């Protein structure tokens, strides 16, 4: 009976180096490398940088306004707050916020109103102190282009209370009290509050707002 030759043994030195994981550790799973980020639409106040003028920072993708026959339900407001939507008479609401958080509170109010079906062109945002970052960005390209966006009336517009008289009346006015409520700002608040069918939302210190308007809330 013929003998079967033994398989040749591969010397251990020819098998290549062995990689033995350290005791108690497992070899790490390779992580996927994230791909390039898409150019997300910046929020108001976060314009893109670069030598060329970026597109005006959109507040957010605006949902189509709900048809009059079937208005969209209002989105719930944070902390138990609701933004009134009865447009048959003037409405007034205060959202408590510190001076350094008033602009953020105003932006949140804009989001809630857009979610509830308000058209972007219905909303004007005023600041009593420094300009809203979106307004500062747009003004850097000249007042003509800035005010042209207000005249177009197809998107949320941001301005200071000192310029409120130049702004076309809109059904919704949101005021961020991020500075002192001087006579000019108080007058702007009173004018909006007395406007029939307007919705006025003021973000700031309730005590200062009540004092400026001379009425309790």
Can you characterise this structure?
23% of the residues lie in helices and 12% in strands. The longest helix is centred in the middle third of the chain and has 14 residues, at 102-115. The protein is α/β, with parallel strands linked by helices. It has a five-stranded parallel β-sheet with strand order 1-5-4-2-3, sandwiched between helices. Mean pLDDT is 73; it is low at 29-56, 63-82 and 84-89.
Concise synopsis of the structure shown:
The chain is of the alpha/beta class.
Which key phrases capture this entry?
5 strands; five-stranded parallel β-sheet; 5 helices; globular; 217 residues; alpha/beta
Tell me what portion of residues adopts beta-strand conformation: 5-15%
- Proportion of helical residues: 10-25%
**Overall morphology:** globular
Output the structural class.
alpha/beta
Kindly, what is the distance between the CA atoms of the first and last residues, rounded to a whole number of angstroms?
Answer: 110 Å
**Which regions have little confidence, pLDDT < 50, spanning 5+ residues?**
29-56, 63-82, 84-89
Mean pLDDT: 73
Number of strands: 5
Strand order of the largest sheet: 1-5-4-2-3
Q: Count of helices?
A: 5
Tell me the Rg in angstroms.
29 Å
N-to-C series of helices and strands = EHEHHEEHEH
Major pleated sheet: 5 strands, parallel
């Amino acid at each position: 009976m013929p003998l079967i030759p033994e398989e040749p043994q591969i010397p251990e030195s020819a098998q290549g180096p062995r990689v033995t994981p350290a005791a108690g550790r497992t070899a790490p799973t390779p992580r996927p490398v994230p791909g390039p980020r898409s150019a997300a639409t910046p929020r108001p106040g976060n314009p893109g940088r670069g030598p060329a003028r970026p597109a005006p920072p959109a507040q957010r993708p605006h949902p189509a306004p709900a048809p009059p026959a079937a208005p969209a339900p209002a989105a719930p407001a944070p902390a138990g707050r609701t933004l009134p939507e009865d447009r048959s008479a003037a409405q007034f609401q205060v959202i408590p916020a510190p001076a350094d958080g008033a602009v953020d509170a105003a932006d949140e109010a804009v989001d809630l109103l857009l979610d509830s079906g308000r058209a972007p062109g219905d909303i004007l945002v005023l600041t009593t102190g420094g300009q809203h970052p979106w307004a500062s960005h747009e003004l850097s390209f000249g007042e003509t282009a800035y005010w042209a966006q207000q005249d177009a009336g197809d998107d949320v517009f941001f301005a200071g209370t000192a310029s409120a008289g130049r702004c076309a009346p809109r059904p919704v006015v949101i005021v961020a009290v991020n500075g002192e409520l001087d006579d000019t700002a108080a007058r702007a608040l009173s004018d909006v509050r007395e406007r029939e069918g307007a919705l006025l939302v003021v973000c700031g210190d309730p005590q200062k707002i009540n004092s400026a308007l001379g009425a309790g809330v």
